[in-house]
Amino acid sequence: MKELLTRAEATNYQETSRHADVLAFVDALCARTKLARRVDFGQSGEGQPMVALVVSDRNCFTPALARKQKKVVVMVEANIHAGEVEGKESVLALARDLTLTKLGQKLLDKLCLVLVPNFNPDGNDRISPNNRKLNLAELEGQVNPPGGVGTRYTGEGWNLNRDNMKQEAPETRCLAKLHQEWWPHVFIDCHTTDGSIHAFDLTYDTSHSNEPLFSELRAFNRVMLDRVAAAVSKRHDFQSFWYGNYKEEGNPRSGWHTYPALPRFGSHYRGLLGRIDVLLETYSYIDFPRRCAVMRAWLLELFRDAAKNSSSYLAITEAEGERILARGESPDVTALVGINYGVATRDEKGALVFEYPAHAKSGDVAEILAFDEASITARRYPGKRPRTWRMPHHRTFVPTQAVSTPSAYLVPESLATRLEGHGIRFERLTAAQRFTVDSYRVARREETFSPDVAANVPPPGEAEVPLSQKPKPVRFETVLTVSPERASREFPPGTLLVPTAQRAGTLAVYLLEPHSDDGFCRWQFLDKDITVGELYPVHRVVVAGPVPRKAE
User: What sign results for the dihedral spanned by CA atoms 79, 81, 86, 89?
Assistant: First the structure.
């Protein structure tokens, strides 16, 4: 039988797989093994099939069987940015090796792998050698395969890793439904990053959103990732560290700073759901074969860790789910959900812009493998002399706005489809009903630009505009200033009652609050219902005991 190879392998890493190659590989693998099954879960914006490859033993190819067999469900998403193709190639090759060799014998009994090798098929097929072209002067791009790679955005122009909260891309909506059906214990998101000059092969990260609220899960996630990094180093000789860039570019003493805590990013979104999340970012400036190799090594060691510690993975995610439910069932006004991490500033024209700073806790130090300072300043890779730098690790976020979890929200009917897209349960009032609610009066309304959220996509074969050239803004956000007030109000039939005692309860809080930095209001889905001086159309249901009218 002919050897089953990815397009990258078959061309000696001169080319990357088109979506047709991915589909053909998936079908060929499923024809050769009983350990893999293709699952179609929708269509891309341009009508291409969205495909997952489920890999497990004991015929475990459904969410129900995975739960019955008490397997850890691991979902892997690759090629969300279709110029970052290493995850796509590595997921396919590793799926083959796990099923057609002995590599997966001790893993698949404990795991059910749900692999999405090409999440952005339309962007993937817009191949050009000039996409993500290396430009060290701007610290962007990568060492490309000669045949080129796809685009950062989808064929319709959406950045899928900024779309998790607003779900404007059909690809996002398809994956959200798949995620809700499988409800994976672990989610792995494969990327390739440019940025600051260092000497790691790959950087990794996890959710930083609401760390105090999810403290046990975040601690588990951090220990696990450091453990896997050590395994990758020992078994595969690749060096890895937490994702980041120099706080002041070119200054290796300034600090190591992670990415913004906005849940439009997938890792922070899934962190609000109480699940284990992993962000993998192989390094743009190493060559393409090495990037694929380090991505494969990390995926394999993550699978091994999940299988070896399966009971711990199941226990921590179950406990976190119970805590989310408890916050809705017995609201605690002292347990605050951070809903905004932005620091507002004004540009030279007076326009509203936001920064999302991370802070370094005392004693949290990053040891960065890099090069001499002259090489870093000159943006030379590789640098002349290896050197390790110690610096503050900026990975702690402090919210600028936070709220408690109410027992429920009262929401206009217009948001029903958007709530369903996130798997958020609600019921409709069948008759007018009075509630004591905390409402918000709108004091001010402004607009701000959404960077790197969407773009005007060039015709197939032409290169996309690099971020350093500041592509034209195409998406904006509504920013409200509000003041709270409590009252008894009557709500009409058809109003949606959204309880927070559900698995997406914390996510619901983030989506529905008016001053959230990534909610429905921010994404302009309520603009027609908002008037300065009037009440915001979403209300918090109050559960409180009687308040004495005077002190005795």
Answer: positive
Find, among 107, 100, 112, the residue nearest to 28 by Cα: 100
pTM of the entire structure? 0.97
Match 């019955």 to its residue by tokens: 68
Q: Phi and psi of 114, rounded to 5°?
A: -115, 100
**Helical residues (DSSP H) of 330-395, grouped into ranges:** 373-378
Name residues whose C-beta falls within 8 Å of residue 318's C-beta, 6 or more positions apart in sequence. Answer: none
1 and 28 in contact (C-beta within 8 Å)?
Answer: no
Alpha carbons within 13 angstroms on the beta-carbon side of residue 164 total: 20
Instruction: Measure the CA–CA gap between 150 and 144, rounded to whole angstroms.
Output: 11
Residues 6+ apart with CB under 8 A from 8: 15, 16, 17, 85, 89, 145, 288, 292
Tens digit of each residue's pLDDT (9 = 90 or more) over 8-56: 999 999 999 999 999 999 999 999 999 999 999 999 999 999 999 999 9
Alpha helix segments (H runs only) across 250-309: 266-271, 288-308
- Helices (DSSP H) in 202-309: which residue ranges? 215-236, 266-271, 288-308
* Cis amide leading into 382 (omega within 30): yes
Q: List, for residues 403-447, the tens digit of each pLDDT value.
A: 999 999 999 999 999 999 999 999 999 999 999 999 999 999 999
Q: How do residues 280-314 score in pLDDT, each as one tens digit?
A: 999 999 999 999 999 999 999 999 999 999 999 99
Q: Which domains does the chain show, CATH number per domain?
A: 7-329 (3.40.630.10)
Helix axes 288-308, 310-329, angle to 10 degrees: 80
Q: Measured between alpha carbons, how far is 204 from 357 in angstroms, rounded to an integer?
A: 19
Encoding tokens for residue 58? 């004991």
Tokens 């799926």, residue located: 95
Categorize the per-residue pLDDT at 543 as very low, low, confident or very high, splitting at 50, 70 and 90. Answer: low
Active site residues: 281
Token digits of residue 165: 């909260």
Residue type at 153 in one-letter notation: Y
